[in-house]
Each structure stands twice: as C-alpha cells, then as structure tokens.
C-alpha cells in the first residue's frame, strides 16, 4: 500500500520496485543518492543557462567550457549546435526534474528533505551567480 501522507521511516520505495530500503544503511545511501541527483539537476540547469548566454553573445558570469562550440564559429552551424546542445540539456534536465518530483511523491520525509536540501545546495553553489539577467524557461516547478 502506497503512503498518501508524509511519514518518517527507513522503509521506502523510491521510483522503482527494485529501489527499496529496509535498513538504515540502505536508507542513508538512498538519501545521499537523492541529494546528489538534486545537486546534479542544478549543475545541468547552470550549464544550460550558460550555454544560452554564450549563444546570445552575452557575458557569461564565469568561464564557460564549450569544447564543441567556439565563439569564433558563426553562422547556421553554430546556431544549430547551440540549439541541439541546449535541447539535449533541457531534455535531460527536465527528465531528472520529473524523476525528483516522483521520488518526493514517495511521501517519505527523509527523501523530501534530501531532495530539497540538494536543490538548495546545488542552487547556492552552481546557479546563484549572476543569473538575474537571464529569463529562465523551465518545464519543472522545482527549477
């Protein structure tokens, strides 16, 4: 039976039937995995926003590493590369965002706290620098 209210405990099923915790060790490791995935979500969003700034020719807050796209390349090929790269980053980021949302829907308090703290941690370290001038488009509510 699935919980429909928040509960606290070490027994939780996260996303898949095979991802069940039954001991404190597996529970803590699962919370750590949720935390890391939430931080990685913010890293991907940071890269996507920086790629968008780079493509628009605006100053990027920190140095951007783009091994496949260089500012010297102009024209349709560069625009197409930026669009493809941005689309891939958006798709992966959206998928991870929705998986995080579904993990929160396990209604386990520890999973909820791990994901929210991971998102906040990732935002603080990867997205809070100079993003105010960018209009961010995201399909996820947790963006």
From TrEMBL:
InterPro entries xrefs: Cop_transporter
Keyword line: Copper, Copper transport, Ion transport, Membrane, Transmembrane, Transmembrane helix, Transport
Localization (cell): Membrane
TM regions (residue ranges): 24-44, 80-101, 107-126
One Pfam family in the UniProt entry: Ctr
UniProt GO cellular component terms: plasma membrane
GO molecular function annotations of the record: copper ion transmembrane transporter activity
Domain of life assignment: Eukaryota
Topology of the protein relative to the lipid bilayer: Multi-pass membrane protein
Protein's UniProt keywords contain Zinc: no
Main location: membrane
Entries under PANTHER family matching the protein: COPPER TRANSPORT PROTEIN, SOLUTE CARRIER FAMILY 31 COPPER TRANSPORTERS
Family affiliation: Belongs to the copper transporter (Ctr) (TC 1.A.56) family. SLC31A subfamily.
Protein name according to UniProt: Copper transport protein
Organism: Lotus japonicus
